[in-house]
Every structure is written in C-alpha cells, then in structure tokens.
C-alpha cells in the first residue's frame, strides 16, 4: 500500500466525487487518503456528510465511511498529505479556475473533471486514446504557474465521448461536416430519478452550454501545440449539435451524420473503429478498455440497457452505420457519461500521467 500514490478528491460528496470514491477502492496504483468538500461538510465523517445523498448503484465503500472530510478551500491542509488530487468541485467557473491553480501552485497535480480550464490554452484537455501528446504542454503551463511539479489537466465534456473517438478513428478520410444530436442521461446533471422525478416520461430539449461544448471541444482535442499553447484544429471540420436531456440514468447516446473529403466504404469505416487503440491500451493502464470501440451489427443497437457498461463503462459502442441520402454516412454511438465521460475518463488520464512520469510521489 505504501508504494501507491496518495490521492485526494475535491468535491468528494457530489455525484462525480462519489464515482471517484468507488473507482479508487482497491485501485492498484492509487490510494484515496483525503476527501474534501464545502465548509458545510468539513469536520464530518464522509458517511455523515453524504447522508442520504449517496447516488451510486453500489454501496458506499467501507474504507471511506469514517474519513473526516476536509474543507476544500483549506488548500495547504488538503494538499499536504496527497501526491495529486482529482477535482469535481461544484463552484462557479471563476472560483474553480482559481482554486485549481491554487492547488497546482502547492506542487500538487490536479486532474479535473470540471469544464473551467478546458479552454485555458496551456491546459491539456485529453482523451488518452486520442491526444496524449497534448500533455507535453504541461511544461509550458508549469512555467506560467511557477511550479516544478504542479499542473492542471482536464478531460473533455461527457457529451462528446460517443462520437469524437469515431472521428479520431476516421481522420485519414478527412471528416468535414458533422451533425450530431446527443440524448443525455440525467446523471450528467448530477441527478437520479429520486432527485428529479419530473424527468420520468419527459424530454427537455435544452442543456445549458452543452451544444457549444459538443461543437468546439473536439476541435481542441484534435488540435496541436504551438508556442506553448494548444491550438484547435482548423482544417475545415465543422460540427453542429443539439443536446437533449432524456429519461435515462446513465449513458449518453448520439445520432451522427458525417461528410468526408475522401469517400470510405462501410467496411473501411468499421475496420478503423474496431482496430482503433492508443497509448492506454499499449501501456495496459488499469482502467483502459482492452477494445476501445466495439461495433454492433444488430439493427437495434447500441442500447443503454445492453451496452452502457461495455468494458466496465470505459468503452464506446457504435451501431447502425449506414449510407445517408444527404450526408455520406450516419451512425449511432453510446458512451457511459459518468465513467468514460467523467470520473472514469479522469482516472484513466491520471493513470496515463503516472505512466509517462508527470505524476510522481512528492
């Protein structure tokens, strides 16, 4: 146990924080030693602080129940016992940007699930299978922050996970126009049906900020580093989206239409999907799916109930790839929004950062 890196979770009592807690139980590389939340929760045991708000399908792990929650704003006290932290705090974006930089300046790496730093030019926003080379910008971020060890890395929005990996697999065919509609689970809003009974049998055709994220974040993921900053892709790829909240607990589904500059066959597209892998697979990271993308041939797949937990919720499921009368091709994708799309994606990012030497023992 002493060889494991010691980790803290900021915002540990919220839904994503709870997911971090469950994922860190018995993790082979990381040991959860600190949980932090608002001043209201500080001083209570984790079990007391969460109370009846435990939202995971599995019971609260025993090892965390009696941990005393620290005040997330007491940065030095939280940072002193950990090698790095996961951030899932519920604050305004300005407050999140400030507190994550404050932690980084204590020489504590921050792996964030939050959106606040996604467009900070020297903060890498990474899907480890797609753009781990963006971690190289950390050296420039450290110069700006005046740190030798501390930095911030983020993961992209959950809404892009069901289709951005496909575009990555198909880059050689030069995707040009993408029209996507995402059908997003209520856990993406930190809710269960108990919290949000009005979602039962309902659809809400608006999720604040999601469409802009869905259209722009893939372009940063596909971008490149220039003069110490990440510059978004500017090769003519355009994405337009609609994001809709649907009565599903976990799993974001996307319907996608794509035009390509080069015209691939269906067989070529499927071959690129099922053989697509990256550094997490090569390195054998603990939470890396063995097969990142699966393709289902059944006409009624992917389905949330059947496919959302593919590869422990860390894989992507694609189906219904077919020619379109206006676009070249269309398909349906599915990703688990709180695993691949949130805490699991951040955990895989931390595993990658450890494997390549950016996160080490203090």
TrEMBL record:
Keyword tags: NADP, Oxidoreductase
GO function term, MF aspect, one: aspartate-semialdehyde dehydrogenase activity
Ranges of residues in domain Semialdehyde dehydrogenase NAD-binding: 6-138
PANTHER family, sorted: ASPARTATE-SEMIALDEHYDE DEHYDROGENASE (PTHR46718:SF1)
Matches recorded under NCBIfam families: asd_EA, PRK08664.1
Family under the similarity heading: Belongs to the aspartate-semialdehyde dehydrogenase family.
Protein name, UniProt field: Aspartate-semialdehyde dehydrogenase
Organism per entry: Pseudoscardovia suis
Lineage of origin: Bacteria, Bacillati, Actinomycetota, Actinomycetes, Bifidobacteriales
């Amino acid at each position: 146990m002493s060889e494991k890196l010691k980790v803290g979770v900021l915002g540990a009592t919220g839904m994503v924080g709870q997911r971090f807690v469950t994922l860190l139980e018995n993790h082979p590389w990381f040991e959860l030693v600190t949980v932090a939340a608002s001043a209201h929760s500080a001083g209570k045991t984790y079990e007391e602080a969460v109370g009846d708000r435990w939202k995971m399908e599995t019971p609260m792990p025993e090892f965390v129940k009696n941990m005393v929650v620290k005040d997330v704003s007491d940065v030095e006290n939280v940072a002193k016992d950990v090698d790095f932290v996961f951030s899932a705090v519920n604050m305004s974006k300005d407050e999140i940007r400030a507190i994550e930089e404050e932690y980084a300046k204590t020489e504590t790496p921050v792996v964030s699930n939050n959106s606040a730093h996604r467009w900070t030019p020297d903060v890498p926003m990474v899907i480890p299978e797609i753009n781990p080379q963006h971690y190289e910008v950390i050296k420039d971020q450290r110069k700006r922050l005046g740190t030798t060890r501390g930095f911030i890395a983020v993961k992209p929005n959950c809404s892009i996970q069901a289709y951005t990996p496909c575009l990555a697999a198909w880059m050689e065919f030069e995707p040009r126009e993408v029209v996507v509609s995402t059908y997003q689970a209520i856990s993406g809003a930190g809710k269960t049906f108990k919290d949000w009974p009005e979602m039962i049998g309902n659809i809400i055709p608006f999720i604040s900020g999601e469409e802009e994220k869905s259209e722009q974040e893939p372009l940063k993921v596909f971008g490149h580093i220039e003069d110490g900053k990440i510059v978004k892709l500017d090769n003519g790829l355009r994405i337009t989206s609609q994001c809709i909240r649907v009565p599903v607990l976990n799993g974001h589904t996307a319907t996608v239409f794509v035009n390509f500059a080069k015209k691939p066959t269906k067989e070529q597209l499927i071959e690129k999907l099922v053989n697509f892998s990256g550094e997490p697979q090569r390195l054998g990271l603990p939470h890396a799916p063995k097969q990142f993308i699966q393709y289902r041939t059944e006409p009624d797949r992917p389905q949330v109930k059947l496919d959302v937990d593919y590869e422990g919720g860390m894989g992507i499921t694609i189906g219904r790839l077919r020619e379109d009368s206006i676009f070249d091709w269309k398909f349906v994708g599915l990703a688990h929004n709180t695993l691949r799309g949130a805490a699991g994606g951040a955990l895989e990012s931390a595993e990658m950062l450890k494997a390549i030497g950016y996160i080490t023992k203090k």
